[in-house]
Specification:
Helix content is about 30%, strand content about 25%. The chain is of the alpha+beta class. Strand 1 and strand 2 form a beta hairpin. The longest helix is centred in the first third of the chain and has 23 residues, at about 20-45. The structure holds 6-O-phosphono-beta-D-fructofuranose.
Length: about 325
């Protein structure tokens, strides 16, 4: 049986769907970096990569060693190829400038180098999330790239994906024409397509939320989760199951595989911050993937992909997954 590697898939996309060659190169480079991160993650204590740094990121979160290693792998892999005008990452306060000795390209790469860091030291799945945007026309300005170049709604993404480092390393990718899944063949060192045309079932009986925040939720979320917990005898008339991996990559991966609803609502802990997850490098790429797989994604009041970002590290409430449940919890917010 002939195997479709990521390279072959991308070359065929260039041939048949006009995917630009520099976008193809960009995805290949990101995938190569993900292989390197997968390798570093899998070494664990043997590689001396577990534990924390003494630094905090822009969100005030303590950085794990692997957060920093993964960030450096992605920067180094992507800075020299001439396909990018700039990068931005969860782990860096400001936009990353392509060093002057390298050519600049048409795209912007935004990423969360290692999502779900609290899972690293306990040997549970983590992942890399990325989003690709076009760099707006800079009218000949060759100076430093400002944050404003990145502040584009999610509908402007030309590609998005994530790598999950779990029992298998997988890369899930959308170029805006459905979602494909590739599994890393460790003997060959290549990503091989194993999941064609991924579809999220419209209905589900599984939800994911951090229940320990219940007392801080807003009324529509409390009402909705009460109804889920009421099961068969409640207004929704069926029993629901709950899962929470505490790495968005892993929870979304389960939803792409068998359906479900993922929620990280805003709550009253920090009222000035709308939720915990970041719009540009968590919610937007995941919402693009989920919509391309037939699911839906909102912040409770609007489609996530339509939100106009106002800052690089902006937070957002997230409800994503099987359409029927996303629509229900969104409707409760609107009532
Ligand atoms: O990046 C934030 C993140 O680690 C997500 O991957 C995950 O869904 C969430 O935080 C877990 O949050 P909590 O610590 O509240 O379980």
């Amino acid at each position: 049986m002939s195997r479709v590697t990521l390279s072959r898939y991308l070359i065929e996309q260039t041939r048949c769907n006009n995917t630009p060659a520099d976008l193809r190169f960009l995805i290949e480079v990101v995938a190569r970096a993900c292989k390197e991160i997968s390798h570093a993650v899998s070494k664990g204590a043997l590689g001396g990569v577990l534990g924390s740094m003494e630094t905090e990121n822009v969100q005030g979160e303590v950085q794990k060693k692997l957060d920093v290693i993964s960030n450096e792998i992605l920067l180094e892999a992507n800075e020299w190829g001439g396909h990018l005008a700039g990068m931005a990452s969860e782990e860096m306060d400001n936009a990353y400038q392509i060093p002057g000795k390298y050519p600049k390209g048409a795209y912007l790469l935004v990423f969360d180098p290692l999502d779900g860091s609290s899972n690293i030291d306990v040997n549970v799945s983590v992942g890399t999330i990325f989003s690709v945007l076009r760099c707006p026309d800079r009218n000949g300005n060759d100076g430093d790239l400002g944050e404003e170049a990145f502040l584009q709604p999610g509908t402007e993404q030309v590609a998005a994906g994530y790598a999950i480092y779990g029992p298998q390393t997988m890369l899930m990718l959308t170029l805006g024409d459905g979602v494909k899944g590739f599994t890393l063949d460790r003997e060959l060192g290549s990503f091989v397509m194993t999941h064609d045309n991924i579809r999220i079932p419209e209905k589900t009986a599984e939800f994911a939320i951090n229940m320990s925040n219940q007392r801080h939720w807003e009324a529509p979320v409390s009402r909705y989760v009460d109804e889920l917990l009421a099961g068969k005898s409640g207004p929704l008339g069926k029993d629901y199951n709950m899962r929470w991996v505490a790495a968005m990559v892993a929870d979304v991966h389960r939803i792409l595989t068998r359906g479900g609803l993922f929620m990280y609502p805003r709550d009253s802990r920090e009222p000035e911050k709308p939720g915990k997850l970041r719009l540009m490098y968590e919610a937007n790429p995941m919402s693009f993937i989920v919509e391309q797989a037939g699911g839906a994604a909102t912040n409770g009041s609007q489609r996530i992909l339509d939100i106009q970002p106002t800052s690089l590290h902006q937070r957002v409430a997230v409800f994503l997954g099987s359409k029927e449940e996303v629509e229900r919890v969104t409707a409760y917010h609107q009532e």
